[in-house]
Amino acid sequence: MIAVIGGGLAGTALVKLLAEKKLNFDWYRDKTPSASHISSGILNPVTGRRYASSWRYDELIAAATVFYGEFLKPIRLEKHFTPYKEESSIDNIIRGKENYLSKINEHWLEVKASYQLQTGAFINYYTDLLSEKHAVIHQAFNHGDLLPDGNAWTYRGRIYSQVLFAEGIFVRNNPFFNYIDFQPNRGEALLLDIYANKPEAVKKYGKFICPFGEQFWVGSSFDKVDFQVPLTTEKTKQDLIQALPNLIEGTDYKILDHQGALRSTTFDRRPIIGEHPQHKGLFIFNGFGTKGASLIPWCAGQLFGTISDSKDLYHEISILRLS
Fold first, then answer.
1. Confidence at 82, pLDDT banded by 50, 70, 90
2. Are residues 189 and 241 in the same domain?
3. Residues facing residue 223 across a β-bridge
4. Mean pLDDT across the stretch 191-214?
5. Do 37 and 132 have their domain in common?
6. Which domain-ending residue is among 117, 145, 164?
7. Which of 9, 42, 69, 280 matches a 20 to 30 Å C-alpha distance to 63?
């Protein structure tokens, strides 16, 4: 029996794989909102003002399209071009990246091979589906009740050969892994109803706008903060509102909600995955930052490779790189 701790996208991905492998598990997920639940779910092959190629994107998207299935949709993504230095130009940016970038005009680029994950729908679907055959336990996990028992671990009378922690930033409360310096990064977003001139493409002009269920999502911020902070701020709300004229035509919209969450980020912007160096059977699956939708399927496969087949993890994502 395996335990999975965490109800966001990372935890959902792990239990989906366990179910596909016909392994028995308990899934502990409370109702605490995670960064996954307000994520735009955008996957795209470039990052930053320099339009650098995203790490291992071809491998990641190949895994993601199979893993997410119908919950992952191709999108048209348009980005406003902002030079990162005076001599940079759209033509220079595109050169060598023609598979991913094309010029719309002097001010806009299309980012090809981009997708959007219906994150909430994916999580809800597998929560309901797996509840039929596996224990989905809707309560907070008390780490103090997890005790070693020979080669296994016990938790409130249940015995687990492995415990997989996918808790996002709440790993800060985990006594087994809180020695890792996961940094909170606050992201805030607005949900809008747009009544006319609805955007036909996902756009980025300083901020993103994209469909989000029946509404539109506008975000996000990337604020390095302490763990115990408000999840939303009036300043960021105003910043997002001020970005709207660049993203939508007119003012025929209504702000429905202002949401925020804390992402879990790492010192080198790579996830941290693997078995605890002292406590055998305890595994970490964390640190996906803003790239969770693209990273998680491939990384989940890597984790199961090391659990079931004793394969070495890539050093770039392994917990062993912290030694």
1. confident
2. yes
3. 186
4. 94
5. yes
6. 117
7. 280
User: How many angstroms separate the CA atoms of 244 and 28, rounded?
Assistant: 39
- The 3-class secondary structure across the chain, one letter per residue, is CEEEECCCHHHHHHHHHHHHCCCCEEEECCCCCCHHHHCCCEECCEECCCCEECCCHHHHHHHHHHHHHHHEEECCEEEECCCCCCCCCHHHHHCCCCCCEEECCCCEEEECCCEEECHHHHHHHHHHHHHCCCEEECCCCCHHHEEEECCEEEECCEEECEEEECCHHHHHHCCCCCCCCCEEEEEEEEEEEECCCCCCCEEEECEEEEEECCEEEEECCCEECCCCCCCCCHHHHHHHHHHHHHCCCCCCEEEEEEEEEEEEECCCCCCEEEECCCCCCEEEEECCHHHHHHHHHHHHHHHHHHHHHCCCCCCCCEHHHHC
Q: How many CB atoms lie within 10 A of CB 279?
A: 14
- For CA atoms 72, 78, 260, 212, the dihedral sign is negative
In contact, 280 and 310? CB cutoff 8 Å: no
What tokens appear for 10 in the block?
């990372």
What is the residue range of 250's domain?
Answer: 183-265
Contact 12, 123 (CB under 8 A): yes
**Burial status of residue 92 (CB atoms within 10 A of its CB: 0-12, 13-18, 19 or more):** exposed
Beta-ladder partners of 93: none
Residue 32 confidence (pLDDT): 78
Question: Is 95 found in the same domain as 63?
Answer: yes
Least confident of 88-97, 230-239, 254-263, 278-287: 88-97
CATH number, domain containing residue 259: 3.30.9.10
Residue 87 confidence (pLDDT):
64
Q: What is the pTM of this model?
A: 0.94
251 backbone dihedrals φ, ψ, rounded to 5°: -125, 25
Residue 60: Cβ-neighbour burial (10 angstroms; 0-12, 13-18, 19+): buried
